[in-house]
Amino acid sequence: MEIIIIAVLTAGLFTFLGVLGFMFFQKGSTNYQEYPLEHYKDIYDEDFQRPESMTMEGRNDLQEKREQLERLQEEYVQRLASIAGMDINEARDEFLEEIKSQMDKEMSIWQSKFVENTKNEANILAMNIVADAIQRTDSEVSNEFTLSTVHLANDSVKGNIIGKEGRNIQFFEKTTGCELIIDETPNVVIISGYNSIRRHIAQKTLEKLLAHNKIHPGAIQEAYQLSLVEVENEIMKVGQSAVDELGIYEFPEGLVRLIGRLGFRTSYGQNVLKHSLEMAKLARIIAMDMNKYFGTKTNYVDVDICIKGALLHDIGKAVDEITIPRKNHITLGEKICNDFALDYRIKKCVTAQNISSNFGDNLVIEAAIVAVADKISASRIGARKQESAEYYQRLAKFEEITESVYGVNKSFVVKGGKELWVFFDTSKVNPAKLTEAVSIIANRLRDEAKVVGQLKIIGKWEGEVVEYLG
């Protein structure tokens, strides 16, 4: 009832002001007939008639509104008296200015309420969209660590793996960059290495050697080369499976291969490809719901860009471990986007990986949605392990610093981060300089890296030079 009364009052007030305005506009006209104000008041008396069945509360409320209208009427009578000396144009301008001022105030109040209500409704819708996306996306929490297990037919094979004076195991570890852990555990050999692709290649190499029952340096090298080719093919299949799952068919082979490498890369203990696939599915649902509730023909979210941007948001991590000198994955991801001439919005998804950076003048709604999906995926219980991520980053830093030293061919962190193997280029570093080169590495690590505990640095040429740091 109150809403009806207010609506009638508002409509009546604007009509009343219009009547007064009409009087002003017609003043001085030869056809002008002036009526007393009581004549116009009577019009409103008729408008406010109500059935006898109206409640007492309703009648009182209505009477209050009538009195309010009468006060307004009296106010405007006084205003008319004050401007009686004006000419018709001045009176018209005064009246219009008054109406405009009143309308501006009411419009400002209405606009503020509208904006506030819209924000509240948008927040509720946004929460519903995100909650719905989480519920509709299958979650597979997968923490991957630094060990792989190879099962043996019997324990007697362990001796062949080690070889005479440890020759086979040393060559295997030097070739693959992974450590073999052979202990009393029956019928099991453990491969240790923080780099997932290295560890996978080492596992396939060892499995080939065991299958052919031939283990010596020549066989190890041959099995390793075959495993490299097989893993590259496997990477391509993994990448192709990922884009097929999302319905992406136009990515070039090189980009698909990089996506496949994400399947062998972890971040904070979380498989990067599984994380990216989950993000792509979340982003698709969020984008579709955004279009459903907020989209128009000319203003909408590109669902396809959201899917691709989510899948590729961490693409730089496919190569950050093999790029010399090493760079952060965002810089590498931006370069990959440029190399493959990807849409600028996909590039934004790669370079703007936090929600706050997606707002302002450079807003790309698809990138903002991808950032939200990233937060959701990473925040699932058990999805990430902060401590393991920092540990892997520290080990990678050891190798990065070491490989920047002149004469170093390659380096591997093994023994759970307790040893650093350094292989020198024999054409650049002679045996007499080996001790000096290892000392340079030790000093660099001491100054530039966070070394926890004792790190044993082993320089490998034809002989070995051992230096202890810590």
Quickly list its features.
16 helices; elongated; 9% strand; Hypothetical protein af1432; 470 residues; 4 domains; three-stranded antiparallel beta sheet; alpha+beta; Ribosomal Protein S8, Chain: A, domain 1; four-stranded mixed beta sheet
Topology:
Layout: H1 2-26, H2 37-47, H3 56-82, H4 88-136, E1 147-151, H5 157-162, H6 167-176, E2 179-181, E3 188-192, H7 196-212, H8 217-246, H9 253-262, E4 266-267, E5 270-271, H10 272-294, H11 303-312, H12 329-339, H13 344-351, H14 365-379, H15 386-403, E6 408-414, E7 419-424, H16 434-448, E8 455-460, E9 464-469
Parallel strand pairs: 7-8
Antiparallel strand pairs: 1-3, 2-3, 4-5, 6-7, 8-9
Helix pairs in contact: 1-3, 1-4, 4-10, 6-8, 7-8, 8-9, 10-11, 10-14, 11-13, 11-14, 12-13, 13-14
The second-level CATH architecture of the largest domain is Orthogonal Bundle
How much helicity do the residues have? 55-70%
The CATH homologous superfamily of the largest domain is named: Hypothetical protein af1432
Mean pLDDT: 75
CATH topology of the largest domain: Hypothetical protein af1432
Number of domains: 4
Strand proportion, as a percent range, falls in 5-15%
Output the structural class: alpha+beta
